[in-house]
Design goal:
By secondary structure, this protein is an alpha/beta fold. Helix content is about 45%, strand content about 15%.
Length: about 350
Amino acid sequence: MAKSPRYRFCVGPWNFSEGRDPYGPETRPAQSFDWKLAALKELGFDGMMFHDDDAVPEIDSKSPAQVLKEAKELRKRLDGEGIKAEMVAPRLWFHPNTIDGAYTSNDPKQRRYAVDRSKQTIDIARVLGTDLVVLWLAREGTYLRESKDGRRSTDLLVEALDAMLAHDKRIRLAIEPKPNEPMDHAYIPTIGHALAIAGLAKDPSRVGCLIESAHAILAGLDPADEIDFAMAFGKLWSLHLNDQNGLKFDQDKPFGSANLRVAFNQVRVLERTGYGKNGEFVCFDVHPFRTTKPEHALKHLSNSRETFERLVEKARSFPEKAAQKLVADRNYQDLDQLVLNHLMGT
């Protein structure tokens, strides 16, 4: 199978998961970071994405100097393995200070905690050699609409973006939208919302987005359309490919596992729009099935990459002239079958 030199691949430490889901505990033993780093290298991946406390464990118990010291030590380990830090994200949904939201909390002290921790994340990103900070606005929303003012919350989000942009003039912020979970309703549920709020920041050129396939599906949208929309703005700076079987909890299934045609169209858009030509990574935010045995616990990663690379071949060999002829004739029935036949190899 031919491999494309254009694409670089990465995953996060959390993608080596132990099988916990919302309804049950772990089914596989936990592995050390060293084991995960070695596995990443063995699989031939190019980068690793981090939350701030993936890079520096127990981050809230450490001084700023200690945090930077440990980040520098991690940078040396990554450099030694030839692994690039793709991004860093503040984990603002675990700490007690973020129960009522982080940047949009009704408590100004909690909002200050969220902004300060985000600035520290930016410092970590600088040490690790990446200019990309991802914001999954996990608890920026409400369980009760009466508990927050949506307009005020928008203003607070923009205020937080501006504080981060002012902290480091080189950093880029990529907003990762999701419509729900853990919140009942999120304030930034789609890429359209992410790009709209980016335009309110003091430096909109440094605020873009990250698309996750499953999050788009949870919003009832097609991930390929979301990718196309973001690329039209030149704002797709990272990508989490996975799959999702309907409107359940965020499953993070292996890429193409639930709907191969939806996966094909995502790859086709990436090919058509030139994603990756500027060094952007293809990240697989996937988890092994809960039933997976420990000895098979890396297959979701290698399988996702294999599916992606085979779909790259399918996108590049797609009979475009025949398809366009059918489009011109408005013969969408045969276009539909053309796509199916191409995916089935007939």
